[in-house]
Amino acid sequence: MAGTEPCFDVAHLGHVELFTDKPEASLAFFVNVLGLTESGRDGGSVYLRGFDDYEFHTLKLTSAGRTGVGHVGYRCASPQALERRVKAIEALGCGIGWTEGDLGHGPAYRFRDPDDHVFEVYYETKRYVAPEAEKPALKNIAQRYHGRGVCVRRLDHVNMLAARVEPVRDFLPAALGSRVTEQIVLDDGTLAGCWFTVNNKSYDIAYTVDHTGRHGRFHHVTYAVDQREDVLRAADIFLENGIHIETGPHKHAIQGTFFLYVYEPAGNRVEVANAGARLVLAPDWEPVTWTETDRKKGQAWGLRTIESFHTHGTPV
Amino acid sequence: MAGTEPCFDVAHLGHVELFTDKPEASLAFFVNVLGLTESGRDGGSVYLRGFDDYEFHTLKLTSAGRTGVGHVGYRCASPQALERRVKAIEALGCGIGWTEGDLGHGPAYRFRDPDDHVFEVYYETKRYVAPEAEKPALKNIAQRYHGRGVCVRRLDHVNMLAARVEPVRDFLPAALGSRVTEQIVLDDGTLAGCWFTVNNKSYDIAYTVDHTGRHGRFHHVTYAVDQREDVLRAADIFLENGIHIETGPHKHAIQGTFFLYVYEPAGNRVEVANAGARLVLAPDWEPVTWTETDRKKGQAWGLRTIESFHTHGTPV
Amino acid sequence: MAGTEPCFDVAHLGHVELFTDKPEASLAFFVNVLGLTESGRDGGSVYLRGFDDYEFHTLKLTSAGRTGVGHVGYRCASPQALERRVKAIEALGCGIGWTEGDLGHGPAYRFRDPDDHVFEVYYETKRYVAPEAEKPALKNIAQRYHGRGVCVRRLDHVNMLAARVEPVRDFLPAALGSRVTEQIVLDDGTLAGCWFTVNNKSYDIAYTVDHTGRHGRFHHVTYAVDQREDVLRAADIFLENGIHIETGPHKHAIQGTFFLYVYEPAGNRVEVANAGARLVLAPDWEPVTWTETDRKKGQAWGLRTIESFHTHGTPV
Amino acid sequence: MAGTEPCFDVAHLGHVELFTDKPEASLAFFVNVLGLTESGRDGGSVYLRGFDDYEFHTLKLTSAGRTGVGHVGYRCASPQALERRVKAIEALGCGIGWTEGDLGHGPAYRFRDPDDHVFEVYYETKRYVAPEAEKPALKNIAQRYHGRGVCVRRLDHVNMLAARVEPVRDFLPAALGSRVTEQIVLDDGTLAGCWFTVNNKSYDIAYTVDHTGRHGRFHHVTYAVDQREDVLRAADIFLENGIHIETGPHKHAIQGTFFLYVYEPAGNRVEVANAGARLVLAPDWEPVTWTETDRKKGQAWGLRTIESFHTHGTPV
């Protein structure tokens, strides 16, 4: 049956909007330390991207009286795919409606996930066009490798907190055509974490349980670098710039990601990561399930997961 | 129109069959030096795979009186997608017909590309199940990281030679739904090389001009490692094992791949490569075109392309 | 005055003898997992070395009813330098006397440090001569890069435990001409750790306080790899081989060493490390002193030092 | 006999003075692209150093109507050692006399090598003291890891050209106590290149034949980075900044150095390099001799040495 075929309507995670109550310090972090480049600004928002992000922005940093996530945008594979997704989302009863888009993209359809985070899907986008000073020496990257700060390559994924993850496991496949690639199932059957992807990356979004029971909170946003050495170098850059390093560098057992977590000045958690050559190519990939026993072994090489990783989310 | 939507019928490059006239030496190279693991053998063929290849095999090494490529297999995203591809291929008039598959997969439909290389598409596959001694410590990789030789992670891509590349540029999108991501167009308009992908990898197959004008020849097969350091380490391993290093390590201007090329004992070219975090996520990616002027700059960091790279193919 | 000139009588740390009560398992670890190569054996000892150690051995693994360190050997810069050191050591009243040497080196003068560890100084040595199968492709390394296991390059340093470190800080400069490069001084003035070198490496031996108050115990032996990536790769190799990883990879605040600690099967701690391009070139280097306040920041990137690091020594 | 003992009078290569006829462009390269930091300036000279160089400067960049090397300074191990070296140099009949030093160090004794390059030996030095904004997070490095440009760690070595290398092979051991670690001897017995060290680095100066027969010319100065990945990253930084990359990254057969050569704007050759964990620890190291046959194999992994490497020197 056609209904059981994999869905490819959504092409990739497009951008995330982060709220900050320390806009200047946050911006300085993202530009000078993480190495994003500003594309433009409007209202209280600054549009930022990694040097090889092809769209106008992958991070919309919005000055607000709070921290946490504003919304998450996914780009669809075609106008028709966008239509299909809107129809599917509306059928799920969680639609908010259309927006006109912003500096970075065209019309977007907004909706809520079961934990009250705001998402949007869109197709029309504004491609980043490098100004003369940012033109790359090699024409197949979006912007020159400028070498500023950590100089991350591209947006990789986001991690949400949710009071309950189970509803999300059903929701994202229905709304976005996401596949579950890995998950944590506790001994009592509770789903403690779930990793999803819409494409060949092994995940573009993860949800983990918010032990405070609150809704709509944010765990972290991740930018990818090309090599694990870039993650190690990032650690020195964060250290020298007085950025709080929460944990890492180390390798996650789940997904095998080589990670480093810091808090940007307003408190939102940011990860720099490298996945090596790992991709999920199998169209019929079976979710990998991690048990409590598995998790007791710590991260891949035995690091105990730091307590704040289970408790710190934004808003705090 | 639905017809202009991207096609996702083919999930990924599945395997390549290489011919060797030095089967023992070739096998020793692939197992002990490159670090593939044998899954099984039948007739004159040995089935091999990288430690994180999920299928039974990604390389079928077949003893023959010659070198070069036997066939290339692509796995479809679903049974329905396979049906659609067979229909499309038959319509192109290049179909050969169904085979029963082999040790590694189920029924496959074979066809020829315009330069007379043999391909097949299939859906049913045999997943690699690690025997006790090869079980990984982390359950999300297919086999333990055994550390033998270069210990490549997974099949990455193949490169074919063709008397003319233009017909292939039309053919692969029609047959497999491939997209062109990069290409070399000479000053006289000739297409000297073309890179294609069916998924988010920036390429899974490339075609470059065979200056001898022959048909059906093979340029190289590539296995991916996680880090550029693995490529550098591979160079020392090849050196110490008396394997002919043709060129590298260096970074390709095209696709930005960090590469190292060697000849396996029978003469087939093998590449070890790392792409960093580079992916083609844009559903409407515009092909990047390299001109003769671009190519005169050499590889990314200025290395002159070695002459044999333009002349050596198998069979010789 | 000549007396205040730096002393260069001792060229480098030569070897360490480790005791094991699980000789077969320990040997399998050192050869197959860490990647040392056997040079020979006599009595209950196996002589081992890293691929670029120039002497016959840097590790003498001796079967005994216990774990811990047998002795540590330093090679002098010349026969005259050896004579001078013996005279100085005898004057310190801690001499044991001459031995005839062993398979790896000529006559050695043995002595005890203030905490009862046995040392020896020697000049005549047996150089490793690679058998045909181990000859390197490049003639400036001692043995081919064989790629087995972690494939460590060379002995780097040892770390002793001592009931009190203060006497050692006076002793090693007098006995070996060592310089103190870094140290930990607690708020009450206690010397909690001290790092020494006889050459341009930033340390070849360290002493840290044994909180059990016992004497003559051993903390770890370290082998150097060329790149931090080799340390990360080692972590996967240890993981897949069931070797207990105690802590790391991470970067020490002290000395900046990128480290990974494991226990070999008998329980002796072994480190794989990389120091980058760091050397102590200044002839008048001033010791760097770390305070309790400094230490509360954890390792370089904030990792809390694992409790066992302060308690586990051999014999246990 | 004491006379045959190794000499340790000279502690390390201290600095090199380079002439430039494009002072602004050269300075911009060294500061913004290579990542050196300015310590001060006087007359037409700017004093520069890598982030972990402990002295006031390791590069004195002097505006002149020409390119090439001004002088090379070596720091002695003690005042007494300096006296001994001056006596030895005077006995060789090549002394120039004392200078008062400059911003970076105290009195220095100048002399000429047999090819007419100017050297100096000194003991009193000015240590770099980091201003507040440059203080490192970890107190055992000289300056914070600022991450600007290539951000090299420390001066590594210099390479001189000489009409004849043989006289230098005799001279440096006599003048500085240098040891020969590697050399190229042609089939006709000519010494084509020679690598020397005064300490445990495998070389701090090299001499190669100047095929033009001229005297006093300069081949390159090298700064060390911690990892090979830093060299690869440097290649992208040079590429994006329009710096001419001559050759590399690749691994030298001789000394095993992982190298990358560029020309700074005035034309002086600059290398970024990593030696891994390689050190010359043996006090009785036997020089490694490379023959013409050896050299025909190219660099370590087969790269042909680029022609300009044999012809380009400064002044041009």
From TrEMBL, chains A, B, C, D:
InterPro entries: Catechol_2-3_dOase (IPR017624), Glyas_Bleomycin-R_OHBP_Dase (IPR029068), Glyas_Fos-R_dOase_dom (IPR004360), GlyoxalaseI/FosfomycinResist (IPR050383), VOC_core (IPR037523). It comes from the Bacteria. Keywords: Oxidoreductase, Repeat. Pfam families: Glyoxalase (PF00903). Its EC number is 1.13.11.2. Residues 12-124, 154-275 form the VOC domain. The keyword Oxidoreductase applies. The keyword S-adenosyl-L-methionine does not apply. CDD domains: BphC-JF8_N_like. One of its GO terms (molecular function) is catechol 2,3-dioxygenase activity. This is Catechol 2,3-dioxygenase. It comes from Propylenella binzhouense.
